[in-house]
Structure formats: C-alpha cells, structure tokens
Amino acid sequence: MIYGDQKTGILVQGATGKQGEFHIGLMNEYARKVGGRGVVAGVTPGKGGQQVHGVTVYNTVKEAMHEHDIGAAVIFVPAGAAADAIMEEADAGIGTIVCITEHIPVHDTMKAIAYARIHGASVIGPNCPGLLSPGEVKMGIMPAQLYSRGSVGVISRSGTLTYEVVDELTRAGIGQSTVVGIGGDPVIGQTFVDVLARFEEDPQTKAVVLIGEVGGNLEEEGANATDLPIVAYIAGKSAPPDKRMGHAGAIVEGGEGDARSKIARLQKNGVPVASRVSEIPAMVKELFCGC
Amino acid sequence: MKLREYEAKKVLKDAGIPVPAGFLIRAADELAPHLDALGDAIVVKAQVDVGGRGKAGGILMADRTTAVATARDLFSREIKGFPVKEVLAEQRLDIRKEYYLSITVDRSAKQPLILFSDAGGVEIETTAQENPGAIRRVRALPLLRDLPPFMLRELAGKAPKEVMPVINKLYRVFADRDALLAEINPLVVTPQGVFAADAKIIVDDNALARQGIAVNRDLSEREREAEKHGFSYVELGGTIGVIGNGAGLTMSTLDLIEYYGGKAANFLDVGGGAESERVKNAVRLVASVPSVNVIVVNLLGGITKCDEVAKGIIAAGISQKVIVRLAGTNEAEGRRLLSENGYEMLDTMDLVVKKAVEVAA
C-alpha cells in the first residue's frame, strides 16, 4: 500500500455537508470491514462539537489534530473553499491530502499545491475519487465492493473509468495493491511520476495499470521515469481538438496532448497500450508470465 | 473562455500595458468620429471567435481616406463562416522590432510558465520547431504576487528594458484574471515605446463567475443548455448519442464506438448521483440532436441506483432506440423495469457499443 494503511487516521474536511456525511459512513464501513481506523475526525468551521456517524466534528484542523492521531485528510468542501482547506491541512502538518472537490479554479489549485509542497504535504487531486488500498484503507469515494487485494497498482485521471478497469481486473482474478485516482484537472498534486515513484518503493506492487486521457503529457513523463512493468490505456482517441471532454484537463490544445501521439510515445518507450478497456486484464497477465 | 481581442486589450490597458489607440465599432459609419484619434495609418480587425482570421481576410490595412470604406467591406464579409459584427479599428504602429510574450499553466511543474522570444509575430509552435534557442522559459512560484527582477532580466535578455515591466504586468493579469493563457504576440517596439499589438486571453471556465462573465461564449446553445443541468456536453457530428457518468468512462465509450466502426453524435457526462430526473433530461437532450438515431447509455458506479436510471430513461419517452449498460446498486430492479418497457439492457460496454453501431448502420 502507498499513502496510508489500516493504521492511518483520516480527517474529513466538509464533514457535515451531504457528500462528507455520506462518505464518512462508507469510509468507516470499509474501515470496520478491514480492521482499520478510518475517519477519526471531521472539520466544518462553525459546526464544532457535532457528531457525524459517531465522528466528532471540530471547527479547525489544528483542534482535530490536537485530539487525534491523523495521517491523512479527505476534502469534500465546495470549490470556493477547497484551496483554503488544502492549505489549512498542510499547515497543520497532515502529510496526505485527498481533494475530491471539482471545479476549483486552476490558479487556486496552483497556489494551494505550492503551499502544500512547502509544508511537505502530498496532494491527491483535486477533482478525483481518492484512493483505495484493498484490505487496508479507503480515502475517498471509490466503490469498495469492486476491489480485491493483490499486486497490481492502478493510477488514473478518471473516476468511473477506474472503477470499470478495477472491476475487469477483479473479475479476471487480478488483485490490486493500491488504486489512485489522481484527478481530471489540468493542475493536480500527485501526478503519474509521483505515484509511480511510490509504487516503486512499495514491495506489494509488481506491475501498474496507467489510465490516462487526452491533455498534457504527464502519462508519457510518468512511464519514462519508472522501471515497473506498465500497461497503459488512453481515453479520448475520438476527442476533437480544443474541446474539453468533461474533465477540465481533458483537452487537446495547440496540437498537443492528443491520444494518438500519447499512445505512439508510450509504445515507442516499450509500454503496451490497450485499445479497449476489456483488453487490459489479459495484457496485465502477459506482463507477469512474460509471454 | 477566450476573450475577443478588444476585450483582452481592455484588460491589458487597465493593467497599465500600452496598447495601440483603438475603437470598437459595430457599423462602418461609427468610425468617422474617431479618425482624428487614429491618425493616417489604420488597421481594421474583425472580432470573430475563430483563429487564423488574418489569413482568412479578417484584418485589412487602410489609411485615413479609405478607412470607412474598408470597414464597410470588412462588415460585409464572413470569416471562416462567421459574420463580422464587431470591428476593432486601430492606429497602425511604426514597428521596429517584434517580440513574443506569453504565460500559460505548466501542468508538469504546476506553476505559471512565462515564455519570451525574440521572434515575435510568429506562432510560438513554429519558433519552437525552427528556432528553439530563441525561446526563453521561466517558471514562477504561484504564491508570489510579482516576478522577481532576476526572472524579468532572464526573460528579456537583450530586449529594451521597457519590456520588463510589461512582462510583470502581464503576469499580474494572468493571476488576477484567472487566465489559462495570457499572450501578447507581437509585443512591438516603436519610436513611441513598447505596445501590445495583439492580445489573447483565455479565462478558466471554473472562474467565470468570479470574473463577472455571465455567459460562456465558447459553448453552443445546446452545450449551454446542458451546462444548466450540470452536464458536460460536447457535439461530435455522428449518429450515435452517448450518455455516460464520468468523463473518462464517457470518453472511452466514444472511443469504443470508433473502434467498432461507428460515429458518435455527442458526449454527455451526467456526473455523479444520476437520479431519474437528471437521466430523463440527459436522454431528451441527446435525443434532440436531429442526426441521432440510437443512444448508448453506459452508467457505472457504486452509488448510482439502476432503478432510478431506468425510470429516467423510460420517462424520457423518446422515439430513438436506447441501448443500456448499467452496473451498480438495484441492478436487478433496473433491468426488470427496462425490459418490461421494451428497452434492451446488456452487460458490458463492448456489447452495448457493438449493438449500437449495428443499429446505427
């Protein structure tokens, strides 16, 4: 596992909102199942003292940190407050910050990530489903019933497409070490490079499925920087130029970041690229048997 | 959203960056009172939301005596299919040297990237290919309000020192206006000083509200309608309508259509928590595109309730065939509702798409 395990205490920022409350319930249901600590504290300014699914809510992150051993945070606050939440958590000393929130202006994200970097915190997202290490910990909104424990790491810019891939892997008997949704925005904290570096240090992870999409060149950058065996998939082969395909970051602009050139660059570096999601499990099996 | 040239120049002017004297007109006759202020050499530029307007006849040179007639000519044209409704009439500058200056978001560094090149007036992509040494690059810590002077010196190189405050002012515009791109090309040197001869600003769609921009002009009418419902929507021109949840899954559904030899008409991402009302609106919106003769619905997710989705599809009551793949909670109930109402539900993405391509053909 990377970023956290059963022992990681999680703080939820935006604990009393609809999303926060719903997912505290699901995260702690998962924690009970795997014997983990799960969500130990919530934060919503002005709502200190309330309880959400038995979890105490605090007014500030520092107050929560004073009462609990917290290693990670998950953010569900609205877009206008999310950058502030990231900075508050980094400032309080939380090392892993998962930001689920979508539609944060890019300039806010750049500032918050720069601030977090100064404090030594890693930001996952924004605009992401979070991460899940089967049998260990769930930080975010991924549907845990699709996952199974194993040795394949998954990194993805997408949410539901990740679930689709995980579902295919599980059905094919291929378990996962950690599945990380890094987010669909143009600027995100942990990129393919960062997560792959963590997977390299993780003895459980033997191979990685990399799920990218149009926009930027971070997939190629990541694949070039690791020795781990990789199977890649790139969504958006039929995406027209200059159109944002649902994700703020999924855009072919200035003739760059299109799927075909990404795929060509990955293949040139020896990375097998699946043309359909359903081909991924068989290609992962090939990596392992070497045939 | 991309600002028009006159809007971008107004932003620069407000930030203290010199721009040529200019006036926006909506009819040729509006130009006459401004001729004194524009001088003898004049340029008229069509304000249309397309790139490459210069080559398409959207920028015309004139002098004091011909300016009104030239503007009239420009108003009668169509530039790449767009009628000319607004024209920017500007003084023509006495250009001695042209530079390129832009600020973008560097996804890899997660910081603003400032580019300065001695080869102005040329597309930066062309310079990057033909003369990469001419481009100087600097990345800045986004927490800084101003660029440190050493960065300005590094960028400007041997260019006149007047360009340095312009670079810093553009950096402030980039941050203050939530820009994804702020570009001055060319930045020109004249005997009267430096000027932004052309300007391009793209504002972050996620910041339009706080920038006071009410309507995103980059979207078509149907795309705007979709936005009101909270959908991401893109038109693609084919015959197969596509509804998915999540951008990646919806994109890969489009790719699968192409793989099986079909052509997608559109892309609609309903987003999370698809209740029946949302699904109904999504199906109706996609079905309203005349070229759509079959619709693929591909929804997956732990928290998506299949019975809700089924109710939405049935309530939409559209004439085109709808082929459904659903995975999530209450799957059996969703399947029962759909089959009772004559809809086809298949188990995998590959199966629904293959079927839709057959129907579309």
Characterise the protein shown here.
The complex is a heterodimer of chains A (291) and B (361). Chain A is an alpha/beta fold. Chain A has two domains: 10-124, 3-Layer(aba) Sandwich (Rossmann fold); 143-289, 3-Layer(aba) Sandwich (Rossmann fold). Chain A is built from nine helices and 14 strands. Chain A has helices at residues 18-34, 61-67, 79-92, 106-118, 160-171, 192-201, 218-224, 259-268, 280-289; strands at 10-13, 39-43, 51-52, 55-58, 72-75, 96-99, 122-124, 130-133, 137-140, 149-156, 176-181, 207-213, 230-235, 273-274. In chain A, the strands form two sheets. Chain A has a seven-stranded mixed beta sheet, sandwiched between helices. In chain A, helix 3 runs parallel beside helix 4 and helix 6 runs parallel beside helix 7. Chain A is globular. The model of chain A has no long low-confidence stretch (mean pLDDT 95). Chain B has 361 residues and is of the alpha+beta class. Chain B folds into three domains: 21-91, 2-Layer Sandwich (Dna Ligase, domain 1), CATH 3.30.1490; 97-207, D-amino Acid Aminotransferase, Chain A, domain 1 (2-Layer Sandwich); 221-360, 3-Layer(aba) Sandwich (Rossmann fold), CATH 3.40.50.261. Chain B is 33% helix and 29% strand. In chain B, the strands form four sheets. In chain B, strands 7, 8, 9, 10, 11 and 12 form a six-stranded antiparallel beta sheet that branches. Chain B has a six-stranded mixed beta sheet with strand order 13-15-14-16-17-18, with helices on both faces. In chain B, helix 10 links the parallel strand 16 and strand 17. The radius of gyration of chain B is 26 Å and the shape is elongated. At the A-B interface, helix 4 and helix 5 of A face helix 8 and strand 16 of B.
